[in-house]
Write a structure and sequence with these properties.
The chain is an alpha/beta fold. The strands form 9 sheets. The protein has a 6-stranded mixed beta sheet, with helices on both faces. A 5-stranded mixed beta sheet has the order 25-26-27-28-29. Helix 15 packs across helix 16. The longest helix is centred in the middle third of the chain and has 20 residues.
Length: 895
């Protein structure tokens, strides 16, 4: 939080209402009189619970500025420097805590109170500088970052900056172990009163404090024991039982292993009209403004994180006894407010539950947060707080302005460079409006993310006052412009491609252009484009002679070879839909796929035929087939772009394997996008090594044949041998290669991979690519373009693409933006778009969608659902089941 705020969590008016509601609910207990006596011990004075925790944190991370409390007081007018310094020292004299340091005695910390401490007030003259105010704030930031030594002190520093004769800035920095936000306001008020007396030369007010902070620390240790402590702890044990969630908010940067406390601020205002309507809404529900704003904050956190169990911290003054109200010291306590949200409940219902939680927590606020942490003993993580990661507070007024004779004192938070929480929202009642200050950990959030979050809170508040009875998942978060960007602007991928072309026709066109160019290389076999087209035509004519109707399923069960390429083209030319069958599949899976696809013919080799002998399909062994008498002319078949080009089966890891029907039009759209996006041409050399059972093999086979390039076929099993692959890449001058991350890791560690300088494009897909692996690859081959691809089989090979870059500061490399004529959405469970950075489920629409699942109309209807974001009749979108989030640049990150 901004440490110079009141740090009491609610305003005085709110606190009074809280106390009334506690009595109404029967939660207020009659407490015995809390008269705090002066201590008798002068040595080995214990620390308060709050101080003890800060002392231990300082032992863990000495020299941190995370618990500095920097602030600034503008002094405008005729300033008496001697009076100001004398006033500061009088405050130090009156408050023992400002003369206190801390040391360890037998492993335990104790307070050491100096009988005398005199502060000097250094003056830095900036009046001659042209931009004195900027320099003043630079010095303020620098001062805020200077650590304190708890063993030596002093734990209060003051510096005076002169900007002009009548314009000074007083920088005051305290360590949190001796003060809190309330204390600082006391300090400033006392400073004003004492300055008036000193400036007039009057005797300083003799009023002494009845007790000191050390007296309170001793009393607290004695008071909070036995039955009183146990009664309070019982509530908190029940309220915070089980595993407390870590809110997975839309971070801009990967969370580091340890917190560095680098902070940032963003401030927005809530209009007078909206503020008034929020007050009225709260009053109607018997709730305070604090409760209303907190309920909205919790709804926002749920919507952004997906975590229904929302835990938030809020500060309370911790000054239950009147004797404590005038003491400087560390009294502030933190309450942990836990609420489970149900998406189907209205905001009014959520507010009712938040109200109950707040009242119960305030009725059990005596347990210091530090004691609660000790009792619950949560698993500690250095990267975030022990019980919660976000804080919320409503303050009663802006920082004060004090008018003195001849001098005006105006208090202001110094620019903060640190924060103790992931995120804190402090709302101040400023007149009839609300000022919302968002303080955030700049190591995990950036300013743009917080600006969006603040805008979502504003939109949500506006939606709440209009429709408080709406179910909370229906309340708006995004503006119309933001939602339009999510649905339309980021999906502006239209490219005009000819719609009536078939995949094999694209090959035939290329064969006519470069008939003598080498098309396929396998071992010692070289096929020109003319040879390949001729052989494919002959086999296609043979298939047509078998009486296969258009779109007949034709199984292809062949090891990698030149014949495999011939067979794939022949099936398309004959009007069939290829069913790839990997020779490594067990016979049971092969039989299942043949039967499920109703393949009437299977193209195979004699040594593989036995595995499918009982499938019922007609088996054609290419190594025993004589097609010399068949025609070599192009085959004329009535194939339409909407016909299936292939049916490829999922692994079946989640149940029965599904046959995905991909059409010629979807496949042609993908191939043209790749050709244009990566500028493939006849000079390229592609290495085909992906097993035929994976749809990524499809583009490896067909892309080079569309552009007149050379297709090198890896030997069977070669995709598992990194040494062989490196040798093959270098031998043939391969320029284009596709890998999965596991194989990429093998390659970058393979001696000789760095010599594969012909490689210009390296595609990676199939699973998440880590930033570490991407950086390692680019380090070995700095000139290669490493492209990360994503797409289920149902979206025709790839739906998104991203060129990897080093230094993205992410656990995984983004999967990129949609390919041509494809739209990608991140939606919640109600099919509503989620904001940038928020995790949701990935949906894909557009020209890349498969036709559906083979013989699974019910599953097709479930997964390929009507698209609510397109006006076109029959528009569909595919539910991937994958979690992702859209990054600010429009690209996606797969989770």
């Amino acid at each position: 939080m901004r440490e110079w705020s009141n740090e009491i969590g609610v305003s005085a008016e709110e606190l009074e209402l809280f106390e009334y509601l506690l009595e109404e609910e029967g939660l207020s207990e009659a407490s015995p009189e809390r008269t705090i006596p002066r201590r008798t011990q002068q040595d080995n004075i214990p620390l308060s619970f709050a101080q003890e925790r800060l002392w231990f944190l300082d032992q863990l991370d000495p020299g941190t500025a995370a618990y500095n409390m920097p602030g600034a007081v503008w002094l405008e007018g005729d300033l008496n420097l001697v009076a100001l310094e004398r006033s500061l020292n009088e405050i130090v004299r009156r408050h023992e805590v400002l003369r206190t340091t801390f040391r360890a005695e037998r492993g335990l910390p104790v307070q050491v109170i100096s009988p005398l401490l005199r502060l000097s007030l250094p003056l830095i003259d900036l009046s001659r500088l042209s931009d004195s105010e900027r320099e003043a704030w630079r010095l303020s930031d620098e001062e805020a970052q200077k650590p304190f030594d708890l063993t030596r002190g002093p734990l209060l520093r003051a510096t005076l900056l002169r900007l002009s004769a009548a314009h000074h800035l007083l920088l005051i920095t305290l360590h949190h172990i001796v003060a809190d936000g309330w204390s600082v306001m006391l300090l400033v008020q006392e400073l004003g009163a004492l300055y008036v007396a000193c400036n007039r030369g009057e005797q300083l007010p003799p009023a002494e404090l009845k007790i000191s902070y050390a007296d309170y620390a001793v009393w607290q240790r004695q008071w909070l024991t036995g039955e009183r402590l146990e009664r309070q702890l019982t509530y908190w044990r029940e309220q915070l039982s089980g595993e407390l969630p870590v809110l997975k908010l839309p971070l801009a940067h990967m969370r580091a292993g340890g917190a560095r406390h680098r902070g940032g601020l963003e401030t927005v205002r809530v209009s007078e009209e909206l503020t008034q309507r929020l007050r009225e809404l709260g009053r109607g529900a018997g709730a305070t403004l604090f409760m209303t704003l907190l309920a909205a904050w919790k709804v926002l956190l749920w919507r952004l994180s997906g975590e229904r169990d929302v835990v938030v911290g809020t500060p309370v003054a911790g000054r239950e006894s009147r004797e404590l109200e005038g003491l400087i010291g560390f009294f502030v306590n933190t309450l942990v407010l836990r609420t489970e949200l149900d998406a189907e409940r209205s905001f009014t219902e959520v507010l009712k539950r938040v109200r109950e939680v707040c009242l119960e927590a305030y009725a059990h606020q005596e347990v210091p947060f530090e004691r609660l942490v000790e009792e619950l003993a949560p698993q500690r993580e250095l990267s975030h707080g022990p019980l919660f990661q976000v804080l919320f507070a409503l303050q009663n007024a802006p920082l004060p302005q004090i008018d003195l004779p001849g001098l005006r004192m105006r208090v202001e938070d110094a620019t903060r460079g640190t924060t103790k929480f992931d995120l804190a929202l402090e709302i101040t009642e400023d007149g009839n409006e609300l000022e919302c200050v968002w303080q955030y950990d700049a190591d995990v959030f950036d300013a743009a993310t917080i600006k969006r979050m603040a805008a979502h809170y504003q939109t949500l508040l506006g939606g709440i006052v209009v429709n408080p009875e709406y179910e909370i998942h229906k309340l708006p978060l995004m503006s119309d412009d933001e939602e339009r960007a999510q649905l339309s602007d980021y999906n502006s991928t239209h490219v005009a491609y000819p719609q009536q072309t078939l995949l094999h026709e694209l090959f035939e066109q290329q064969a006519a252009i470069t008939p003598d160019a080498i098309a396929v290389v396998f071992d010692d076999i070289r096929l020109t484009y003319a040879d390949l087209n001729r052989r494919a035509n002959k086999l296609a004519h043979h298939l047509c002679g078998l009486g296969l109707p258009t779109e007949s399923r034709v199984g292809v069960l062949l090891e990698r070879s030149a014949d495999l390429v011939v067979a794939l083209l022949a099936v398309l030319k004959a009007g069939g839909a290829c069913v790839p069958l990997d020779p490594v599949y067990p016979s049971e899976r092969l039989k299942l796929l043949i039967e499920d696809s109703q393949a009437s013919v299977v193209l195979t080799q004699e040594k593989l035929a036995q595995a499918i002998s009982e499938s019922g399909a007609q088996v054609v062994c290419l190594d025993a087939l004589d097609t010399s008498f068949e025609s070599s002319r192009e085959v004329q078949t009535p194939v339409h772009p909407a016909n299936a080009a292939y049916v490829i089966y999922t692994s079946g890891s989640s149940g029965r394997p599904k046959g995905v029907m991909v059409t010629h039009s979807a496949l042609c759209n993908h191939m043209r996008w790749m050709r244009d996006a990566f500028a493939f041409d006849a000079t390229d050399v592609f290495l085909q090594k992906t097993p035929i059972g994976f749809d990524a093999s499809v583009w490896e086979f067909y892309m080079p044949l569309m552009v007149g390039a050379k297709l090198v076929i890896a030997r069977p099993g070669g995709h598992q041998d990194s040494t062989y692959l490196v040798r093959t890449i270098n031998e043939h001058g391969v320029t284009v290669l596709q890998v999965v991350p596991m194989l990429l890791r093998m390659l970058v560690n393979e001696p000789g991979f760095s010599s594969c300088e012909a490689l210009r494009l390296l595609f990676c897909g199939g699973e998440a690519l880590t930033e570490e692996l991407a950086a390692q690859c680019l380090g070995v081959l700095p000139t290669v373009r490493l492209c990360n691809l994503y797409g289920p089989a149902e979206t025709t090979i790839n739906a998104t693409s991203w060129e990897a870059q080093s230094g993205t500061n992410a656990a995984t490399v983004p999967i990129g933006k949609p390919v041509a004529n494809v739209g990608v959405y991140v939606l919640d469970q109600w099919l509503k778009p989620v904001p940038l950075g928020v995790v949701g489920e990935l949906y894909v629409d557009g020209s890349g969608l498969a036709r559906g699942y083979e013989e699974r109309a019910d599953l097709t209807a479930e997964q390929f659902m009507p698209n609510p974001f397109r006006d076109e009749h029959g528009s569909r979108m595919y539910r991937t089941g994958d979690l992702a989030r859209r990054l600010p640049g429009g690209e996606f990150e797969y989770l």
